Amino acid sequence: MIASSAPNSLPNGNSPPAINPIAHIALVDALVEQGWYVGNNVIDLDLCQALHRELNHMAEHDVLDEAGIGRGKEHHLRKDIRGDAIHWLDRESAAQRRYLDAMAELQLSLNQALFLGLFEYEAHFAHYPPGAFYQRHLDSFRGRANRVISTVGYLNPQWPLDGGGEMVIYHPDTPSLEVARVVPEAGTFACFLSETIPHEVLPTQHPRASIAGWFRRNASLGGVLDPAR
């Protein structure tokens, strides 16, 4: 839990949509046509700023968890594969609630347009210190049907040209072919098919802040989520 002194609220008054509604249409079209989407100025910048402050507070107070690979009993730390630290979103702040509510709206749009049967959304803050990276990988094994669509929302304002830390998206049929390179600039939002789109995070030269998330189908068995978070 963050200390009560952490900035965790948004300004009073009517806020613009957390996610640009126009992006919903472009996002659905891109997922159908190519399996991935990247849009600039999609996330409200005031929301990005609030989430960025919250994540920085966590990093400064050493309350983030080192990220590993694998899930459940197969989870283990591998700094040679990924070097970020994380904190799962749990609606403990106004900014988190606003972001998660926007993802719930996006989930509804995706289910209505693509009949995906998306059941839930999970997400975590991701903080990459200078030098950290995440090697090329898929977010879900083919056929597991747990994570269906991955999302990444970027929080860093005014990312420098030499900052590194780009997410590289590769072609699903030719994993060595780069098809997009995403600068981790505040407001940028990316999503892609979890089982088919390889991607990686290049080494960053500055602290890099984002929210990684996944829309999942209901893969429960006997009341137990498969796999557990």
Automatic annotation (TrEMBL):
Entry-linked InterPro entries? HIF_prolyl_hydroxylases (IPR051559), Oxoglu/Fe-dep_dioxygenase_dom (IPR005123), Pro_4_hyd_alph (IPR006620), Pro_4_hyd_alph_FE2OG_OXY (IPR044862)
Q: What is this protein called?
A: 2OG-Fe(II) oxygenase
Which positions are tagged coiled coil? none
**Cofactor dependency:** L-ascorbate
Keywords linked to the UniProt accession: Dioxygenase, Iron, Metal-binding, Oxidoreductase, Vitamin C
The Fe2OG dioxygenase domain covers which part of the protein?
114-217
